[in-house]
Amino acid sequence: MGLIYTEVDLSNPVNGGLAPLKVNALVDTGAITLCIPERVAIQLDLTELEKREVTTAEGKQVSVAYVGPVRVKFGSRSCFTGALVLGDNVLLGSIPMEDMDLVINPGRQKITVNPESPDIPSVIVKAACPTSRFV
Question: Predicted confidence band at 125 (pLDDT cuts at 50, 70, 90)?
Fold first, then answer.
């Protein structure tokens, strides 16, 4: 299986006056978070929330900016997350993919919405409180 890329829209939900950026993101289930290059963070006028230490594939530890919030949109699905600022390409990790209930279709070399929940993202939880006004 080769590398899988997908088109997503990234936006700054705090600054609605900025247009979303359409980017080609590398899909990486081995990564946890969204990673964006510095130029994308600047274009979206994202705020640095803190520094985070990351370990690169080469085993090197580096301190990088963690920015947000970022809205990630894939088709009709979206999520809100933070992003690590590093690299020169957008990398879509497992947390935003899980949050939007996306799955990899290896035969077609692309990601799609989960066919078991085509209309609305679905998640598995250990317990739900039925007294919540949001249930």
Answer: confident
Cα angle, residue 131 at apex, residues 129 and 132 outer, rounded to 5°: 75
Query: Is residue 128 over pLDDT 60?
Result: no
Residue 115 has pLDDT above 60, yes or no: yes
Task: Single out the residue of 46, 28, 58, 128 nearest to residue 85, CA to CA.
Answer: 46
Report the distance separating Cα 100 and Cα 67, nearest Å.
20
Q: Angle 58-23-96 (CA atoms, 0-180°, nearest 5)?
A: 65
pTM, 2 dp: 0.89
Q: Which helix (H) or strand (E) holds 25?
A: strand 21-27
